[in-house]
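Minutes, project huddle
Topic: does the predicted pose make sense with magnesium ion bound?
PN asked that the exact inputs be recorded in the minutes so nobody has to dig through chat later. Recorded below.
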Amino acid sequence: MIRFSHVTKLYDNSSEALSDISLFIDKGEFIFVTGASGAGKTTLLKHIYMEELPTIGQVFVCGYESKKLEPRRRRRNKLPLLRRKLGIVFQDFRLLGDRDVFENVAFAMRVTGAKERAVKRKVFEVLALTGLSHKCAYLPNQLSGGEQQRVCIARAVVNDPWVVLADEPTGNLDLGVSLDIFSLLRKINSWGTTVIMATHDQYIIERYHYRRLVLERGRIISGADSTVRPKLWR
Ligand SMILES: Nc1ncnc2c1ncn2[C@@H]1O[C@H](COP(=O)(O)OP(=O)(O)O)[C@@H](O)[C@H]1O
Ligand SMILES: [Mg+2]
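Predicted holo structure (C-alpha cells), as shared on screen:
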C-alpha cells in the first residue's frame, strides 16, 4: 500500500535528508518511525502525503506515484484525491483558531463536497469516538493540549482514511495525556486503518512492540522490511 523505492531527498543544496530509502508498509500496520531530531522522520511522512517529492527514487501510496505528481507532469490536481485517503495529525495541532471544535472537523469533510446531513452525522460520530461530544462548541484555545490533539485526530479520521500519519502527536503532552492519545490511535488501527506514528517517546516505543522504522541521519538503520516485525505482545 505504501512503497519507497530508493528514495533520496535533498533540500536545496544541503545534505541528504533521506538517503536511499526503500521500504514497504502493508495495509493495517501500526508503525513507529523513530530517530533523533533531524533524522528525517517528518521528511519521510511528507513524502507519504506528497508534500515533498523525492529528488531521486519513487514513492507509491494508495495507487498514486510520486513521479506522476511532479509539477512538470501537471498532475498535481490528483493530490487532493490522495490526501483524502490520508489523515494527518501534527504535533502543533494546526486547528482553525476562530472556529469551534465541530467546525474544525466539519471543514475537513466539507472540502470533499460531502452533503451537510452526512457531515453532521459523521462529525458527531468522530467526536464521540474521540470523547469530545460535550465540547463541540468550544474554540481550540478553550481546550487543553490533549483535547486539541483529539480534535486533530477526529479531523484526521472524518473522511475514513486508509492511512493516518501522526507526526510526534504526543510531543507536547505529558505522559498520561500522551497515553490517551496513543490509545486512540491504536483503536483507530484496530479497525483496519494503517497508522504511521513518528515519535521519539521512548516510554511508548518500549512498551508496545509494533514495528519500528529507525532513522539515523536520513538512513533506515532497521525496520525497513515488514517481515522483521516483532510479534505483538499478548
Ligand atoms: N524545508 C526544509 N528545508 C531545508 N532543510 C530541511 C527542511 N526540512 C527539513 N530539513 C532538514 O532535513 C533533515 C531532516 O529533518 P526532519 O525530517 O524535519 O527530521 P525529524 O522530523 O526527524 O526531526 C534535517 O537536517 C533538517 O534540517
Ligand atoms: Mg519532525
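Observations noted during the meeting:
- The chain has two domains: 1-85+162-234, 95-160.
- The longest strand covers residues 16-25.
No decisions taken; revisit at the next huddle.
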